[in-house]
UniProtKB/TrEMBL annotation:
The keyword Transferase does not apply. This is Pyridoxal 5'-phosphate synthase subunit PdxT. The keyword Lyase applies. The gene is pdxT. One of its GO terms (molecular function) is pyridoxal 5'-phosphate synthase (glutamine hydrolysing) activity. One of its GO terms (biological process) is pyridoxine metabolic process. Its EC number is 4.3.3.6, 3.5.1.2. The active site is at 79 (nucleophile), 169 (charge relay system), 171 (charge relay system). Pathway: Cofactor biosynthesis; pyridoxal 5'-phosphate biosynthesis. L-glutamine binds at residues 47-49, 106, 133-134. Belongs to the glutaminase PdxT/SNO family. Coiled coil: none annotated. Keywords: Glutamine amidotransferase, Hydrolase, Lyase, Pyridoxal phosphate. In the presence of PdxS, forms a dodecamer of heterodimers. Only shows activity in the heterodimer.
Length: 187
């Protein structure tokens, strides 16, 4: 299993560490040439969606990556990665890769609650730790989107086909449940 990790900005190294611990190999995507390597799936990390979106354009990665996603490349986006994949963002006129049929709310928890930690059920995997950092949530989702987790009645993890997103950062905890879920999705 070979996973490409978008490594332009944000928390990408943490994803690589979890993948290594799970026995999956990974490589960093920093420039166009990296997209020609064979990959079973892609991870888009947390960070700043606006910065990552701009860098994707500046580096000429945006269109090829969007095409690969539309052609079915499996993807896992955390936090800013969720925003990069969302078809709609309720409180931001920017759109990015826009391949996943959700409406996200950016910085949805305001300043006071910008960062918090909780434990909640994920898919059929039981309770897992969830770390939120200036996180979005999903306000609504299309008919083909499966809801995988909700916290305070807001959707915080979802899947449409082979696209998986979490508003929280599983790579910042020592729980590998969500990464295992993603790797199982690729089989
Ligand atoms: N607030 C960031 C954004 O809007 C996301 C934060 C994160 O990825 N931890 O892109």
């Amino acid at each position: 299993m070979q996973i490409g990790v978008l490594a332009l900005q944000g928390a990408f190294i943490e994803h690589e560490h979890i993948l290594t611990a799970l026995g999956a190999s990974s490589f960093e995507i920093r420039q166009l040439a990296d997209l020609s390597r064979s990959m079973d799936g892609l991870i888009i990390p947390g960070g700043e969606s606006t910065v990552q979106g701009k860098l994707l354009h500046d580096l000429g990665l945006f269109e090829p990556l969007q095409k690969m996603l539309n052609d079915g490349l499996p993807v896992f986006g955390t936090c800013a990665g969720l925003l990069l994949l969302a078809k709609h963002i309720a409180n931001d006129e920017r759109r990015h890769l826009a391949t996943l049929d959700i409406t996200a709310v950016r910085n949805a928890y305001g300043r006071q609650l910008g960062s918090f930690h909780t434990i909640a059920p994920f898919a059929d995997c039981g309770n897992i730790p969830m770390t939120f950092i200036r996180a979005p949530y999903i306000e609504s989702a299309g008919a083909n989107v499966e809801i995988l987790a909700a916290v305070n009645e807001h959707i915080v993890a979802a899947r449409e086909g082979k696209q998986l997103v979490t508003a929280f950062h599983p790579e910042l905890t020592d729980d590998a449940t969500v990464h295992k879920y993603f790797l199982n999705m690729l089989k």
